[in-house]
Design brief:
Layout: E1 26-27, H1 48-53, E2 58-64, E3 78-81, E4 84-85, H2 94-107, E5 112-119, H3 132-142, E6 149-150, E7 164-169, E8 184-185, E9 191-193, E10 199-201, H4 213-216
Parallel strand pairs: 1-2, 2-5, 5-7, 6-7, 7-8
Antiparallel strand pairs: 2-3, 3-4, 9-10
InterPro entries: PI-PLC_domain, PLC-like_Pdiesterase_TIM-brl, PLipase_C_PInositol-sp_X_dom
Protein name: Phosphatidylinositol-specific phospholipase C X domain-containing protein
GO molecular function, one term: phosphoric diester hydrolase activity
Length: 217
C-alpha cells in the first residue's frame, strides 16, 4: 500500500463526500500541549501545526477571557483547559492557533479543518443574554477572515469547505439572534435517524451523572 501524504489526505476524497461521512482524526483539548503547565492540564504532545501536518482535521479548542491582561485586552481570547491556562509562562492566544490554521489551509487547499470552539473558565462568565462571546469571536477573530471559514449551520460536502475551517459551535447563542446560524451547533441528540430510517445511537455518550447512568452508557 503506498504511503499517504498526511498533509493532504483529503485530496483523495471526492468533492461530493459529506463531512459527516468522514472519520475525522482529532485531538482532545488540542491547544493543551505545553510541557510547562499546571498538573493534569497537558493533553497533547505536539503543537497545532504539527498536529495538522500529521493528519489531524478536528481541533478541540477551549477559550476564556484573558484574565492575565487588563482593560480591553481582557477580550483577547486565550486557550485554557477548564479554568487553567494551558501554559504557565504567559497566555497562549487564540490568534496564534488561527494563524497556524490559515497557514496550513493556504498550503493545503484540498483540506478542511473542523474547529470545535467552547468557552470555559466559569469564573469569568460571558453574558449569554446579548451573545457577548459570539460577538467577540466573530467581530475580533473570524469576521475579517470570513473567506477562510465555512460558517453555515448545515453540514457541508467537501466541495464547499476545502481550504476552509468549519466552525462547530459549543457555546450558546440567542434563539432568534443574528448568530443563530453562526456555525454548526453541537447540541444534537445522542440518537439520530439516518438516511434509511434506521435508528442509531452515537458512540460518544459520556455523561454519567448518577450511578444509574452507567448501565445506560
Amino acid at each position: 500500500m503506498p504511503e499517504i501524504n498526511r498533509q493532504e489526505w483529503m485530496s483523495l476524497l471526492p468533492d461530493d463526500t459529506n463531512i459527516s461521512k468522514i472519520s475525522l482524526p482529532g485531538t482532545h483539548n488540542s491547544g493543551a500541549f505545553f510541557k510547562i503547565s499546571a498538573p493534569s492540564v497537558r493533553c497533547q504532545g505536539e503543537p497545532i501545526n504539527i498536529q495538522l501536518n500529521n493528519g489531524i482535521r478536528f481541533l478541540d479548542i477551549r477559550l476564556s477571557k484573558d484574565y492575565m491582561s487588563r482593560g480591553e485586552k481582557v477580550n483577547d481570547l486565550m486557550v485554557v483547559h477548564g479554568k487553567f491556562p494551558v501554559k504557565l509562562s504567559g497566555s497562549y492566544k487564540f490568534k496564534k492557533i488561527l494563524d497556524e490554521v490559515y497557514d496550513f489551509l493556504n498550503k493545503n487547499p484540498t483540506e478542511t479543518i473542523l474547529i470545535s470552539i467552547k468557552f470555559e473558565n466559569t469564573m469569568l462568565n460571558w453574558n449569554s443574554d446579548n451573545d457577548e462571546f459570539a460577538k467577540v469571536l466573530f467581530q475580533k477573530y473570524i469576521g475579517h477572515n470570513r473567506d477562510s471559514w465555512y460558517l453555515s449551520d448545515k453540514i457541508p460536502t467537501l466541495k464547499y469547505c476545502r481550504g476552509k475551517a468549519i466552525l462547530l459551535r459549543r457555546f450558546p447563542v440567542i434563539e432568534n439572534g443574528i448568530y443563530k446560524k453562526f456555525g454548526i451547533p453541537s447540541n444534537w441528540n445522542y440518537s439520530n435517524t439516518i438516511y434509511d430510517n434506521n435508528f442509531v445511537c452515537v458512540q460518544d455518550y459520556f455523561e454519567i451523572k448518577t450511578a444509574n447512568d452507567i448501565e445506560k452508557k
